[in-house]
Amino acid sequence: MPPTPCSLCQTARALVKRPKTGQQVCKSCFFEVFETEVHNTIIEGNGLFKRGEKVAIGASGGKDSTVLAHVLSTLNQRYDYGLDLYLLSIDEGITGYRDDSLETVKQNQVEYGLPLKILSYDDLYGWTMDKIVSQVGRKNNCTFCGVFRRQALDRGAAQLGVDHIVTGHNADDIAETVLMNIMRGDIARLGRCTAVTTEGEDTIKRSKPFKYAYEKEIVMYAYFKKLTYFSTECIYSPDAYRGHARVFLKDLESIRPSAIIDIIHSGESFVLQEGVQRGMKAMQTCKRCGYISSNDLCKACALLQGLEAGLDRSALRQTQDSTTLAPDGQRTIPKYDRHATAFELSTPPKIELHATEGIERAVKAIAL
Amino acid sequence: MSCGNEPDVAPDGGQSGGEALMPRRRQVRRVDRAICQKCKTAKSKYIMHSATFCPACFESTLNVRFLRTLFPALRPPHSKVKDLSRPPLQKGNALIGLSGGAGSVAMLDLLMRFGLIGRGTGARADLTKGEKEVVWDWATVVHVRFEEDVEKETELQRVVEGWGLQWMLLKAEDVFDSGLRQRLGGTQDDGPELGVDLHYHDLPLTELSSSSSLTPREKLLSLLTALPPASRPAMLQSILDHLLTFTAATLPNISHLLLGETATRQAQRVISGTALGRGWALPLDLAAKRSTSGDVVQLKPMRDIGSKETAILCRLRELASWNERRWFLGPEGKEKGKGGSGTRSIEGLTERFIAGLSVSHPSTVSTINRTGDKLVFPGETGSIASCPLCESPLEPSALDWKSRTALTSLSASTVTVPKNRKGDGKGLGLANMLCYACLTTLSRSPIAKHSPSLLGQGSVPLPLWVSAHVGRGTIEQYLIGQDEDEE
Amino acid sequence: MSVVATEMPSTSGLGYSHSNAPEQVASSIRQDDQLEIRIEFGGGLHLLFSQKPKYTIHIPRTIPSTSQHTNVKYLIQWMKENILSEREEMFIDGDTVRPGILVLINDADWELEGELDYELQNRDEVVFISTLHGG
């Protein structure tokens, strides 16, 4: 059988079957449509970025953020967005997972020549995830991690002096979140989870340039571009309920590959009853650390207080109506200053590049 | 993302975790089990929303839920009447959709036991003797056959005629039968019969020659066969919806179309509608009350009752029901096998997903429906164009959105025009007229085999209502030259 | 162990054969080490059981090669091996029934009776009703 020609350029040999469209395309056409789709997401409407904007890429060392760093650097040059890009990493303190993946981020720093900032839970909160899990157990530890990471990213961005964080959330993540929010009746989040950018009052803008990019295509892109990334899943068990949604989504995708993007289309079309979207309380700042909060205490301070008091899972229910001062002897989070400009960036070190096992794993993950 | 947890976290952290909003099943405590939690005397037999009921309290609870859904929809606007008092006699008759599933079987039984429907004699109740006035003078009960099931149809007809109602049997393939309108008493003529070529993205239309010797059944099979298996249920759903609304609008003197969709089915619609890309028009699909063509009002009085409850209700009332839908899903053959039946469609997967989740989280259905109830239709019904296939209002620019987020060509200048087609620029196919979800239904995977259809050319026949909708006046511009097709 | 259909099959039984049931006897003379259980199907489930809506079966009082009293879990296993005639996945999920199938034991929701662990008594009636459409 002769090789199948690319259905886009009709000349080169097709190497990739695009999950999103079902088309069989060659390597260079795949790069082109993948990057152009991201570019389309960026320029849609009023555009995601302003010229000259400082933008931090939330970099975990995983496939999504690694490919995002690569694609965003590429597009920034190709289309002259005029962006000032940074890498921002959070060290949650998970032995055998984050310590290794941060090595990957450091390699990315060299490869793309982007300045890197790393913030650790340990420095910020005095607790690593390893320590948190040993106290609260595996169930619900993701709640601590999610709350702490969100605030850590904002603090890192403030320290870098950027107003905009981009994350590697892909189409699969967003479709899954749409389903999750429907299934648990979370109207407020259902209304905003498909937005490409979320920006609250006085919060740092967050965007998802990969909102239409399929996870499978991100893996293929990394594979064909031979990008270095770390592909281990977090060792602490994920939310079981979310697991149901993910399995369901994969089942849907297997019988109709466009289902992922179709769900996002539905999510974007939803209009929610007036009133329910204003479910969020008015925002104020945390009386203890100054971070944005809808209560006296921000969630992170409340969780931290629970941890410091030696509580197990019940730390999750720590009240957010509290006094300004933490109980004696407990650690607190340093004051948050949105507009601080304290700079201490590591310059790209000269380390030898070597392909990590991430690529070998990626190869196995791709079914051509 | 390697960690999927973050997108849910609000600036504030929020109350994350599904468990908080969707409680797990609680083991009913032993002291609670034995007796009914409503009357507190009789032995309990059923569990509904974590509470236990004896058969009598179970039935009365469901009765109230049924009437509380149905009655307010039948009162004049701004009526301040109490929920459970009887609404006035309606101006027309009812058309009842009866699939034979527990939802519609239980609905028919409830309607008749409450004496809401008369025998079409026009006799009025003598209120002085404590008689209650009917709500509809008469009803026609329509069953749509997808696959023949004599046992089921005979039993349904017996029940319907036993209540003194009119029985009507329609077939799915009637949407290809130009005689249907006349059979229902309509007069207007359908337009020319169109076919569509599913092999091209823009879905070019062709006019089918009237000499086509295919029977309506063969046309239906030809259309279904050409669709990917995952798309067939959506097409069949459109056919069912159309037959019901068309019948309601065409039969003389019908004011209401009553459907037995349960809360469980409703929750499935929320999820599968989302997965099919129907988000925009979804609030209309979910509405308890919706105006359809010909000033008919469509009602779903069972939408607050779950499928488990309707199954128990049928059992209590000794009513036969057939939940297993045996829709013809096209040729089974080689495609069969993977995961068993019901798992090759979005709808089947959704049903399985919700049923599975409901075992550990009994509030799954009600939570999903709470979400669904808060969705608002963003357009204005009536004032905008509708999709020729599903007949729902048409959202703006489905095709644009699709072509921007999933590129299928390198750029406009390099668009490859299929060889055997001339002169078809953009905008001349059915694709441009469809809503996002129906466009997805008719999209084939580009590498799917180029199977010759029964018509001997690339086109498959479209249901007559689609042809009629596309419209005589505009048809010329959508057709590609007939001679080009005959090669 | 025997199977007696209380209604004539509309088609020939596929999942078992009468001639293979040596002690096919009237229920009145069942043996003491057996339980007589009535099974009924609703909502179209009978299509998976040789199209017969009702069965009266005799199964051991204790689960074979154990001393455990026969429970619903064993009954489901027994049904799968003896009377389920087609599309197993439409009825069975692991060692229980597929989610969406309602089970009534003596007309009460099985959730009230201990589900799989319910110990079957002589002349119990177990009803399986599908609430699923398929599709």
Question: How would you describe the overall organization of this protein?
Answer:
Chain C: Residues 1-20 are annotated as: Disordered. Chain C: It is found in: Cytoplasm. Chain C: Keywords: Cytoplasm, Isopeptide bond, tRNA processing, Ubl conjugation pathway. The complex is a heterotrimer of chains A (368), B (487) and C (135). With 368 residues, chain A is α/β, with parallel strands linked by helices. Chain A folds into two domains: 49-280, HUPs (Rossmann fold, 3-Layer(aba) Sandwich); 281-313 and 333-338, no CATH class. Chain A is 42% helix and 10% strand. In chain A, strand 3 (54-58), helix 2 (63-78) and strand 4 (84-91) form a beta-alpha-beta unit. The longest helix of chain A has 20 residues, at 141-160. Among the domains of chain B are: 32-73; 85-181 and 229-373, HUPs (Rossmann fold). In chain B, strands 5-4-3-8-10-9 form a six-stranded mixed β-sheet, sandwiched between helices. Chain B has a three-stranded antiparallel β-sheet with strand order 7-6-12. Chain B has a two-stranded antiparallel ribbon with strand order 1-2. Chain B is built from 18 helices and twelve strands. In chain B, helix 4 (102-113) packs across helix 11, helix 9 (263-275) crosses helix 12 and helix 9 packs across helix 13. The longest helix of chain B is centred in the middle third of the chain and has 19 residues, at 232-250. By secondary structure, chain C is mainly beta. Chain C has a single domain (18-130), classed as Ubiquitin-like (UB roll) (Roll), CATH 3.10.20.30. Chain C has one helix and eight strands. Chain C has one helix at 72-82, and strands spanning 2-5, 34-42, 54-60, 92-93, 96-97, 101-105, 108-109, 124-130. The longest helix of chain C is centred in the middle third of the chain and has 11 residues, at 72-82. The termini of chain C are far apart. Chains A and B meet through helix 1, helix 2, helix 6, helix 7 and helix 8 of A and helix 1, helix 9, helix 12, helix 13 and strand 11 of B. Strand 9 of chain A pairs antiparallel with strand 11 of chain B, so a sheet runs across the interface.
